Each structure stands twice: as structure tokens, then as C-alpha cells.
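PROTEIN DESIGN WORKSHEET
SECTION A - STRUCTURE
LENGTH: 377
C-ALPHA CELLS:
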């Protein structure tokens, strides 16, 4: 199942819960930031300065190193019109690329369908973690969801090998030869067969991987390591997805946000080192996003649901720099106490789809959106 041709792949890291934009890319030279964030702020002398206006959170050292190499694009003020402060609705909007209606298909699921319309490779799209993000969900599109790559497979808890082989054989017979049955049984049959096939293929990935990079022990680092293992096994995976959180920092934010970004930045740094070691840093692009930012004013211990956020694109093919204007903190420019987004998230999706995955973007993102020019031609 391996391919000799290296296709470009997209790696997505979802920051679940609403990452605090103001404390991630900090407007440390703006007095209104410290006026609004009297408690939950990053002191000027702790900010990792980017320029004379903005700087990264102090836990983002590995990201700053990649910024210095020109491999980090910061997309400021990203979001959508008429912001929604519900985690579920806002994430649903990001996942389906449909802000005004309830979408039925995930944008990356549509992309996977266009990449592999016949469904020849059950590993075109893979999620690392429990469950399946809606971004990847489209009826008829097979996406593997891997909890632990080392033990991934069917019935891994059956210790006796002979019993396990018997169980797998029974499973195969149960879900095989479904043609001509009713639609529900056909769907179950395809799902079962896809699960068997993806398990067989993915089981080979760790043994095909060798690296000097040492990933951290946290769950994100281990998922990102698994992403690297599968990517470098060259199994035809084009979309590799994982998520981390919770970034829902209503209280105790300073400590929890620092820990979260230590894990995110550390994982990204390790992944980029891994790609560089394997000579593949121009073959994968990383997208980091969250469903919304937090409110401008803190609540004394944390920050509540807001709008206007930040996204990152990272990789060897990325033209690093700032994209879009940092939203104003002036009261007249706020939207109900929130930052006003000025970058439609579908512009970033459009660029990824057209300039990285070579797909037709309008049919996937439901319209035409101006690109930023983040990816090198």
C-alpha cells in the first residue's frame, strides 16, 4: 500500500475550547490590553517579542524559533461574521464551512472525497484521537480514527493470538459479501471492511519509522508522533488531524494556558524537527486553529467566550509573517466586548485547498474567498 510518490499532506491541530488570542499573540505595546486584562495578562518583560507591537506567549519558544526561520504564518483576526459564542455551533461552522446554515458535510471530508473519489485508499484521511471530528465526516467517505497507533486494530484487548485470529475471521465473515443486501447492511459491511483494511495497513507504520526526535509524554505530543510515523510510512495519507485542549479557560487561565501552549508549541517543534530530519518539511503543512477567541476583558481569573481569533500555518512551504490586521481593542471597534474578526476563515481553507491540495475550493467552502498568499508557489 505504500506509494513511491510523496504527495503533499495537511496536518491539522485543533485547539478545542476557544484559545485566548490576546494571550497567544500579545499586543504588549497597547495600554488598552493591560487596562482590559488587569489580572489575566502577559507582562511585557515575559512576552517573546516579535516586533515592537506584538509578541508570543512565553510558552511558545519553539514557535518563535520557527518564526525566525520564516516558517510560521500568523493569521490575525480570523473568524466569521455574526459570531456565535457556543462551542458547538462555532466549531460546527469551522468544520462545515457553512456559517449561515447547519452543514451536513465536513470541509475536509469533502476534500478527501475529491482527492480519492473512488475510495481506493482508506487512509487518505486519518484522525488521531478518540471520536471523529465533524470536519472529516461525510457520508460514504472512510476516515480512520486512531486512539493509540501502537495498539490500533480490531479487538486489541484479546490477548490470546489464536482467539484473536478466530474473532477477526468471524468479524470478516460477518461484514463481508454485503452486496445485494439492504442499504444499512451494505453500509455496515463497507465500514467493517474499511476498518479491517486500515488496521492492517496502519499496524505497519511504527516499524517503518526511525527518528532521533524525542516527543513529550503528553497526549498531543504522542498523537503528533503518530502523525509523523504514518506520514513518513508513505501510506498515502493526505489529511492528518488531531486536537488538544481544553482551551476553555474561564478560570485559572494563566497556569492552564501556559501548560497547554507548552504542549502545543513543543509538539509542533518536535514535528518540524522530525520533518527536517527526514527531508520532508516542504511536503507537509500544519494548520492550527480554534473555534473562537476570548472576551477582551478578563473575569478576574480567566476569560470568557469571545470572537475574533488567531490561526497559524507552519511548514517549509509557508511564507512566514503576519497576515491580516490585528483587531483594534478600542471600544468603538469592539463587537459586544469582543475583538471583531476581519479575516474570513474560509480564505485560509481556500488557499490550502487550491494551492496545497490542488482541489477546487468553491465547491468545498461554499463560495469564493480571497487568498492571503501564505503558501509559496
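SECTION B - SEQUENCE
RESIDUE ASSIGNMENT:
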Amino acid at each position: 500500500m505504500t506509494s513511491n510518490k510523496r504527495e503533499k499532506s495537511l496536518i491539522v491541530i485543533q485547539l478545542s475550547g476557544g484559545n485566548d488570542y490576546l494571550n497567544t499573540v500579545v499586543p504588549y505595546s497597547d495600554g488598552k490590553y493591560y487596562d482590559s486584562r488587569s489580572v489575566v495578562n502577559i507582562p511585557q518583560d515575559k512576552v517573546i517579542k516579535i516586533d515592537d507591537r506584538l509578541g508570543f506567549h512565553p510558552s511558545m519558544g519553539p514557535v518563535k524559533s520557527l518564526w525566525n526561520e520564516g516558517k510560521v504564518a500568523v493569521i490575525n483576526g480570523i473568524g466569521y461574521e455574526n459570531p456565535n459564542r457556543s462551542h458547538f455551533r462555532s466549531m460546527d461552522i469551522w468544520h462545515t464551512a457553512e456559517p449561515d446554515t447547519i452543514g451536513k458535510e465536513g470541509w475536509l471530508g469533502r476534500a478527501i472525497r475529491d482527492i480519492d473519489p473512488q475510495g481506493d485508499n482508506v487512509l487518505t484521511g486519518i484522525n488521531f484521537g478518540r471520536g471523529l471530528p465533524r470536519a472529516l465526516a461525510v457520508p460514504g467517505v472512510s476516515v480512520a480514527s486512531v486512539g493509540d497507533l501502537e495498539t490500533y486494530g480490531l479487538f486489541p484487548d484479546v490477548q490470546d493470538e489464536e482467539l484473536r485470529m478466530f474473532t477477526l475471521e468471524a468479524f470478516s465473515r460477518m461484514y463481508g459479501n454485503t452486496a445485494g443486501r439492504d442499504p444499512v447492511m451494505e453500509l455496515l459491511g463497507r465500514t467493517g471492511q474499511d476498518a479491517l483494511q486500515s488496521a492492517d495497513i496502519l499496524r505497519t507504520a511504527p516499524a517503518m519509522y526511525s527518528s532521533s526526535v524525542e516527543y513529550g509524554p503528553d497526549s498531543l505530543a504522542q498523537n503528533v508522533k503518530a502523525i509523523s510515523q504514518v506520514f513518513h510510512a508513505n501510506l498515502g495519507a493526505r489529511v492528518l488531524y488531531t486536537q488538544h485542549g481544553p482551551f476553555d479557560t474561564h478560570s485559572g487561565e494563566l497556569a492552564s494556558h501556559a501548560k497547554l501552549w507548552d504542549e502545543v508549541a513543543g509538539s509542533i517543534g518536535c514535528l518540524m524537527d522530525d520533518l527536517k530530519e527526514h527531508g520532508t518539511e516542504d511536503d507537509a503543512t500544519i494548520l492550527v486553529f480554534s473555534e473562537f477567541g476570548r472576551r477582551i476583558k478578563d473575569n478576574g481569573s480567566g476569560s470568557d467566550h469571545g470572537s475574533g481569533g488567531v490561526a497559524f500555518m507552519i511548514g517549509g512551504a509557508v511564507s512566514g509573517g503576519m497576515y491580516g490586521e490585528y483587531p483594534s481593542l478600542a471600544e468603538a471597534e469592539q463587537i459586544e466586548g469582543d475583538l471583531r474578526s476581519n479575516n474570513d476563515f474560509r480564505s485560509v481553507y481556500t488557499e490550502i485547498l487550491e494551492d496545497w491540495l490542488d482541489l477546487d475550493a468553491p465547491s468545498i467552502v461554499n463560495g469564493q474567498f480571497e487568498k492571503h498568499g501564505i503558501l509559496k508557489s
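SECTION C - NOTES
The chain has ten helices and twelve strands.
The two ends are 30 Å apart (CA to CA).
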